[in-house]
């Protein structure tokens, strides 16, 4: 069994120290960080997600798996983020109000930092006003919103409307993403860009900041 399978398997069991050890082993073997992320950590989290959906595991198991994933990502971080890149623009990022999922948002932040962007991370459960305030204070070019629940994705519409009704509308672009988000939803609410994954989000953010 490969070390990537081990990572997936330990993550599903929520064994953070084992996940960390295997991620380190994979790095030592010279496996690219993006493969460790996708074929190890994300593979394991997908299995957990499916089991969660089928009521085969419950919130506590998902939480410990998520913690194990975060520990693995921490080790990968220096390999995903290029060092010493000059800042090319500021992005304000957060998970929308009512939503506590942050693993995907953290990945997006990391990838954006890797492109040399300054990222102000507002965390989770972020209300519209906090996004607006942070964008003003930091002269941000992008507000980036993540949502993982169908019940919270509507918050993104409120953010778009608030920005469009303010002086920020000519200077700030709104990027959205997260598992339930689609291009059709983006078009429907009038957000500027939808991207399906963290790497594409970082490419698009750089494109916006350097346009
Ligand atoms: Co939650 N949860 N959860 N959960 N959880 C989901 C999202 C769910 C799909 C599970 C399921 O039923 N299969 C389901 C939502 C159903 C729906 O709305 N349709 C669900 C539910 C129901 C819930 C609760 C309501 C459960 C409950 O309490 N009964 C509850 C809600 C709490 C709240 O937020 N208010 C809840 C709680 C939790 C935990 C706290 C236990 C934990 C979160 C821990 C944490 O984030 N720190 C958790 C987890 C871990 C999941 C699953 C299993 C995994 C999510 C994840 O981290 N995936 C998830 C099932 C699943 O998605 N398979 C599930 C890995 C991550 C890298 O992917 O975040 O999608 P993701 O990010 C991707 C892309 O979406 C994209 O980039 C990333 C990859 O490159 N992306 C962006 C994300 N943000 C972006 C922003 C961008 C661009 C791209 O631009 C700005």
Radius of gyration: 18 Å
**Alpha plus pi helix count:** 9
Give, in order, the helices and strands: HHHHEHEHEHEHEH
Number of strands: 5
Read across the widest sheet, the strand sequence of neighbours is 2-1-3-4-5
Q: Tell me, what's the shape?
A: globular
Q: Which features would summarize this protein structure in a list?
A:
globular; single chain; 5 strands; 9 helices; 211 residues; 5-stranded parallel beta sheet; binds CO-5-methoxybenzimidazolylcobamide; 56% helix; alpha/beta
Describe this entry's structure for a reader.
- By secondary structure, the protein is an alpha/beta fold.
- The protein is built from nine helices and five strands.
- Helix 7 links the parallel strand 3 (142-146) and strand 4 (173-177).
- Helix 1 (3-12) packs antiparallel against helix 2, helix 1 (3-12) packs parallel to helix 3 (33-53) and helix 6 (128-138) packs across helix 7 (155-164).
- CO-5-methoxybenzimidazolylcobamide binds at residues 42, 45-46, 48-49, 52-53, 59, 62-63, 66, 98-105, 107-108, 144-146, 148-151, 175-180, 195, 197-198, 201.
């Amino acid at each position: 069994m490969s070390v990537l399978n081990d990572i997936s398997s330990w993550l599903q069991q929520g064994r953070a120290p084992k996940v960390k050890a295997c991620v380190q082993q994979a790095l030592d073997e010279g496996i690219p960080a993006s493969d460790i992320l996708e074929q190890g950590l994300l593979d394991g989290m997908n299995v957990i997600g499916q089991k969660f959906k089928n009521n085969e595991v419950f919130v506590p198991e998902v939480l410990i798996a998520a913690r194990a994933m975060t520990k693995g990502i921490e080790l990968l971080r220096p390999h995903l983020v290029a060092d010493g890149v000059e800042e090319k623009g500021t992005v304000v990022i957060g998970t929308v109000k009512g939503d506590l999922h942050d693993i995907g948002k953290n990945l997006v932040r990391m990838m954006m930092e890797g492109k040399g962007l300054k990222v102000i991370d507002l965390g989770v459960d972020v209300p519209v006003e906090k996004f607006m305030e942070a964008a003003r204070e930091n002269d941000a070019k992008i507000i980036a919103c993540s949502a993982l629940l169908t019940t919270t994705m509507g918050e993104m519409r409120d953010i778009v409307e608030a920005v469009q009704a303010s002086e920020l509308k000519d200077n700030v672009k709104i990027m959205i993403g997260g598992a339930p988000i689609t291009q059709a939803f983006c078009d429907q609410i009038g957000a500027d860009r939808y991207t399906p994954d963290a790497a594409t989000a970082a490419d698009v953010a750089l494109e916006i900041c350097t346009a």
